[in-house]
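Usage

Read records sequentially. Each one opens with the input sequence:
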Amino acid sequence: LLRFCAKTNVAVVGGISKLIKAFVLHAKPNDIVTVVDRDWGDASAGWYSLGFDTVHVMPPVAMAVNPSERGVRRYLIGAGIANLNDDSATTTA
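and closes with the structure output:
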């Protein structure tokens, strides 16, 4: 499972727990790791009830979005801006 998301205002009761239980049963992993994008949710009691623990909370990242560049996000690095869609992650002044 690479990504789990839900449609706004739609819930599948027990959806993620059922997916995790099936994965554990069939794949028998040593560990399962998850990342929560705090822009869209938090690691509230639901994740803890599934057996997850908070290991690290990263600080917020400043993002710049230009509406005329649909789908392009840039994050601020020092005095420059790096294009998230560019694999080289170079900065421009």
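Summary fields computed downstream for this record:
- The CA atoms of residues 27 and 81 lie 41 Å apart.
- The helical segments are 15-27, 45-49.
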